[in-house]
Design brief:
By secondary structure, the chain is of the alpha/beta class. It is 44% helix and 13% strand. It is globular and about 50 Å long. Keywords: Hydrolase.
């Protein structure tokens, strides 16, 4: 039976979380909102609308959401040609593909942003499919992105492992019924990832690759 290795992208395979922090912070600042960077960091991994609601609250004027999202998209887009893959990211995906895993990405990115992330990873030969923000109604921490990835891979949750870097990833994977693996390269503490559902935690893709034999992806 097929096995699926589902991966978050930002902060898990590509070192972009702090770029998102700075560009969201600047988008909020331009719109007159003072949002601390540490708060933005903890919200990274949510889709744009959910991130704005999480940081500004339900009492905000939602008419400004589209403008905030557009500002962030424009600011972040300046980095598309130089997004850095995390150590071992492409090698890990190719190793899993070679070992018979169906590799699927589950990300809130889409369009040009997703294209830039895939170029950074440089492992398209190993990636079977992508569940992007365009494919789901609800983003993480809802299970829908992971569930859609499983549909694309054609495997049940019992035959899948989800790798991510945020509590939103771990919560989404846990709700979808898959085994969850956390990585620390997105800047979220180990204890937080474990509390949210991570079965085990690694430093980054290179660390997971080096210790693959003893991992849920063995």
């Amino acid at each position: 039976m097929e096995r699926a290795a589902v991966f978050d992208v930002d902060g898990t395979l590509v070192d972009t979380n702090h770029l998102h922090v700075v560009t969201w912070w600047e988008a909020f600042r331009q719109a007159g909102h003072q949002v601390p960077m540490h708060a933005v960091h903890r919200a990274v991994g949510l889709g744009s609308t959910d991130l704005i609601a999480h940081l500004l609250g339900d009492g905000r004027d939602p008419d400004g959401d589209d403008e905030l999202s557009a500002a962030h998209k424009a600011l972040y887009g300046q980095y598309f040609d130089r997004l850095p893959a995390l150590p071992g990211a492409g090698e890990l995906l190719r190793r899993l593909h070679g070992d018979g895993w169906t590799v699927v990405l589950a990300t809130s990115a889409s369009g040009a942003e997703l294209g830039a992330l895939r170029r950074a990873i440089d492992a398209d030969d190993a990636i079977a499919d992508t569940a992007s923000a365009d494919d789901v109604q609800e983003g993480k921490p809802a299970p829908e992105p992971v569930e859609h990835a499983l549909e694309l891979a054609g495997v049940p949750a019992s035959r899948a492992v989800f790798v991510g870097d945020t509590v939103w990833d771990m919560q989404a994977g846990s709700k979808a019924g898959v085994r969850c693996v956390g990585v620390l390269c997105g800047g979220i503490p180990r204890a937080d990832l474990e509390e949210a559902g991570a079965e085990t935690v690694y430093a980054d893709p290179a660390d997971l690759l080096a210790r693959l034999a003893g991992s849920p992806l063995a």
